Structures are given as structure tokens and as C-alpha cells.
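Before relying on records like the one below, remember that each one covers exactly one chain. Contacts with other chains, cofactors or solvent are not represented anywhere in the record.
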Amino acid sequence: MYGCAGHDHGNKVKVVQSSAGYALLVNDQAFYIQGAGVGEMIGKNGENYLALAKELGANAVRTWGTDQGTQKYLDEAHRLGLYVDAGIWINNADAKQGFSYLAGGEAYRRKKEKETLDYVRHFKNHPAVLAWNIGNECIFFTKDPAEREALCRFLEELVKKVKKTDPNHPVMYTSVNSLDLPYLKKYVPSLEIIGMNVYGSVIGSQSGWEALNFGKPYLITEFGPLGPWDLPKDKHGKMLEQDDVSKAQQYRNHWSLIKERAGKNLGGFVFHIGETTQESLTQWNINDHLYKKEPFVVMQKQFGGGDGSDHAPKIRAFSVPDAVAPGASFEAELAAQDLEGSPLSYEFTASTAVQDVLQYYVNVPLPLEMTVTGPRATLRAPVEPGVYRLYGFARDATGHSASASRTLKVE
């Protein structure tokens, strides 16, 4: 089943179990999620990223916070026939930021409970809502054992209150692969679906789920390329970002393993369509604004949104100096080709090079003075010393793009 059923008074969504395994039913119809994470609906140049998810062939999208899943977002998703796994952000315990689940953290807990229940009450009858996704990796990022237990107990009480407020949509929490699952098993038994973000091994994450004998299905709430934690580092201590072809292969392999295990899982969400700058401007996005990158092409074929015959360009090399003086002029060059022989256009840009920060917008694009001549550019370095990331884009005439990134030290 694809798209929303068109009910004006919300959907009835439930998890069922049979001899074939677990399944998600939406208004009594089986629904397997082939989704995409889309945090922000509208891009900085007015791009409609929900429409791009529909073009991908997705039947559902995922948000991470109530600030993303707004009335306009849900209305547009419903118009396009997309269901929404509605995210509700829960902070990890952080004494410096005043987020605690122990004694003394009552103000934050009360605020979060009110925000959550108000959101659920307001949207529980919206026809785009598929499920409530409360918390994303917050147990893992809470390092103090006492805070972890207190956070889990808070989650359990919150999950029960959400289920009482809205019995027609399942509630889940999202773990870092299977690492949070022992805590969920022990402290949060009211969850109906176990979410896992997987950038390493689908098989390993499922094994962690199976070992705990949850009696509830799992959902791959994010999957994509290798993360910075698994990638080699360059001489500046930053990740060596994978090329688009390698990323595309990883997306394809993940989805193949997810689909093979339908019945244990309820599907998965590609990460990511939009403009998140977490780790880099290009690490997670399978799009370049409205241009489609090779991971998009591959997943569009897997989801049935296209035949995969028109590939994105391929970048064979990206030449950038290791270091330059502040404000100095330097050269960058792309070596790229289009497999279908389409003419290419080129763009270069730069950003900060912040990593390991769990926020949607982390790195800031930096406009540099430059002259671009085909695949070559002469640029002027920032005047502030530091490590920056430089990007090269090759775009064809049929709406496809390839990107590469390298770090540059200004000293």
C-alpha cells in the first residue's frame, strides 16, 4: 500500500504478529515502510523536499522534532500521499545545558512532557501521521549511568501517557544501532516498535535485537553510508568522505538486507533528503538541492520511483592543496565525467569543518572569492586560520549531481 488512505479523522495504525512475522497495518491494510528522512520540508532556495521524497518512491518520511513536523509539513505530506513518522526530540542529560532526569531536572521534564502531549493531542487525527517517534539516540549520548536510568524511566512514563492520549498510533524510540536496546528492554517496556539508526551492519543490529527477545518489531529509522566514526582521517584529523558511488553501493546493500528481513522489521528510512550540514554539507544528503546524486538514483530504483538508467556524473579526482596562508590565492580542480555524455557544469564552495555534533545544521557555508573556468577554480582562502572543508560539484543537464569534499588548512 502506498500513500495515505484519505481519512479525515486520522488513521488507525497498529503492529500485528502472525506466522509470517510482524507487520504494520494502516487502516487494516499492510504497510511496509520504504521511507526517507526529511527534516526540513522547504530548502533555502524554496526547494520542496517532500516532493523530492515522493519522486524517490518513498511512501513515508521521518522527522526528528516537533519544530519540523508542523501543520504545513503534515498537510503537504498528506497531499503527496506520504505518511509521517513524527519525531519528538528528547535531550540527552547534559549538566552544562541544564538537562537532567534526576532530582533538580523537574522543570525540563515538565516542559518536555507538556510539549509532547500537546503535540500528540493536536495532530493525532491528522491523516498523515503514522507513528510517534519519541527520542533519538539520547540514551547513548547520556553517559552517566544514573542519568541513563532516570531518562529511561521518564521515557516509559511519557510513552504510556502518549499511548493513553492516542491509542491509534504506535510509539517508538530510536537507538544507536542496538546499543540502547538493553535499556529499552529493562526500563521502557511500553514501546511498540524498536527504532535503530544503522550505518554499519544491519545484520549486527538485528542480532542485538534478537538476543534480547523483545517480542516487538524493529524499524531501521536511518540508514546510509559509513559515518565519520568509521572513516579514515586525513592529515587534518577530519573524515575522508566517501565518494558518491561508494555511498550508493552502501545504501543499496543496506536496503537489500532490510528487505530480506521483512517480518522482523517494518522497513527503513534513507538518511537523508534535504540540506543537513551535520559532519559536512554533503556527507548525508542524497540530493544536491533538487539535483539527484548517485545514492538517490540507486534508491529511486530500489523504491520503484525510477529505472536507474540515468546515472549521476562521476568524480574521479578532486585536487585541493593541503594548506595555504590566510587570504592566499589557491587552485582547485575536479576531474569528472558523465556516463551518458551529458555536458557538465561545475561549482565550488566551502564550509566550516565541524564534526561529532548532534545537530541538524552544524557547518556553515562560507562564500569565497573565486573565478571558475570549467572544472578549475581559483579561490581566495579565508583570512581566519583554521581547518575548512572545500567542495566541488559536477552537474549534468538532466538534473543529476556528483560532489567531492576535501579539507584545507589555513595557517
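The chain has a mean pLDDT of 95.
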